[in-house]
Amino acid sequence: MRRLIKILFLLPLLVYIFACQREGFITTPDAKLRFSVDTVYFDTVFTTLSTVTRRFTVKNPYKEFIKISSATLAGGNNSVYRINFDGVSGTEFKNIEIPPSDSLFMFVEATLDPNNNPDILLQQDSIVFVTNNNIQDVDLVAWGQDVHILRDSIFNSQTWTNDKPYLVLGYAALDSAQVLTIEEGTRIFFHRDSYLFIAGSLIVNGTRENPVKFSGDRLEKLYDDVPGQWTGIVFYPWSRDNHINYAEIKGGLVGIVLQSSLDLQPEVDLEINNTKIQHISSYGIRAAFSRISGYNNLITNCGISAIALEGGGDYQFFQTTIANWFDYNTRNTPSVIFTNYVTLKDRNGKDSATLVRDLTNAYFGNSIIYGSNKTELAWSQNNTGMMNFMFENCLVKFDTADIPEGGLDHFYNSVNYENPWFLNIDKYDFHLDTLEISPARDAGKLTIGQSFPFDLDGISRIADNKPDIGCYEFLKPE
After folding, report:
1. What domain range includes position 97?
2. Is 301 part of a structural domain of the chain?
């Protein structure tokens, strides 16, 4: 009886052993692995920083086990790449078994060494697989770019040039009474949560052919239009004499923030021209008690407002296009808002005080304010302070029911609620359409067009003495 029990106990184990023996390995020399990719690509990455992790699958396409004799990183310990095979890190793996019709994961990342070269350089390696004396490989390809790195840095007056990009980790802060000059073609990248802090003066000398570019440090095409990748450009109350010309600011939590104070005279001031601010989580430009003037600016795809002017100040915008469609969440606020007060909050988030300061001027001339919301313009006034504003020869989307009594007196020769007919909002092309007759065409005030005779593309506004509204002049197709 005991012998029978032992036999019955061992029977499942014997069945399992014989089953495994019957499974066997495929040993023919033409047996090949199957990979999900033949090359692992990394878009342009910055030297000294680790890349994102890529992965691919190594598949056994057969109905028998297959044994990989070796999987080797060709560059070994000297390679800029690192690999992990099914959870194990190393440079060489031996005798790896893959069950029938099953797969294993290979993970790859890289850290590229500085190359002291302004050009983008190719870095290659491969992973070599040997199975039944059959050699296969998967190529590893990355393009490396040297950068100037600023990590939690407070600095004095200096000039940034386009010899190689700048990468900000944490913050880069210009001290008060100092000047940061950024030359044409310079690229400034920001890691997550990083920002540029200006207590002195910022001078951006971009050109139409070579604008200065501010963006996040994720260079994959997937991130081209993703907001919130970095914090933004913040001007402190003591900042003065700031000038930005031909810049592109994209992918931030905010674009530009100007923080002034009731007890400081004069306010933070900024002249911003020929600049694009795009793909922003909250505000394109947010200013309090400040002074801004600008022309030929394009502000698009902001999650809260394109321009928010709070607590008074002095603002002038000419030949500006605000086109606000935002795909990443629901936007409930208008594209342009302004007030002559700021409500302060206590630690519990409750209103604690209201600071009032005159809005001495908020002027929009030859400009477009449009977007996906029913109303793209709103203002609010505290009657203890002044509100002086005007929209002249503008195309503005607003519901007249939302305009306070007497509000229409602030609009002169302006067009309400008509579609400007942008060329392609899905591709963020806010030129005027060639197939539709836009109400913005030839509708601008001539004296404004004469003051700013060339559009953002360098096209003449006054060749026909009929400037268009917005940052782009309509150009008839040839």
Report:
1. 34-144
2. yes
Structure tokens at 277: 């601010």
- Most distant pair of Cα atoms in the chain: their distance: 111
Q: Which residues contact 41 (CB under 8 A, 6 or more apart)?
A: 54, 141, 142
Closest CA to 232 of 203, 260, 257, 266: 257
Taken in order 183, 155, 201, 310, the sign of the CA dihedral is positive
Residue with tokens 């400009």: 367
If one counts the domains in the chain, the total is 2
Weakly modelled stretches of the chain, pLDDT under 50: 1-22
Contact criterion met (CB below 8 Å) for 259 and 231: no
How many helices (H) and strands (E) the chain has is answered by: 2, 40
pTM of the entire structure?
A: 0.83
* Distances 405 to 371, 379, 384 between C-alpha atoms, Å: 24, 12, 18
Whole-number Å distance between alpha carbons of 106 and 33: 13
46 phi, psi to nearest 5 deg: -85, 140
The pLDDT score that the predictor gives to residue 19 is 42
pLDDT digits (tens, 9 = 90+) for 190-242: 988 999 999 999 999 999 999 999 999 887 787 899 999 999 999 998 899 99
**CATH label of the domain that carries residue 56:** 2.60.40.10
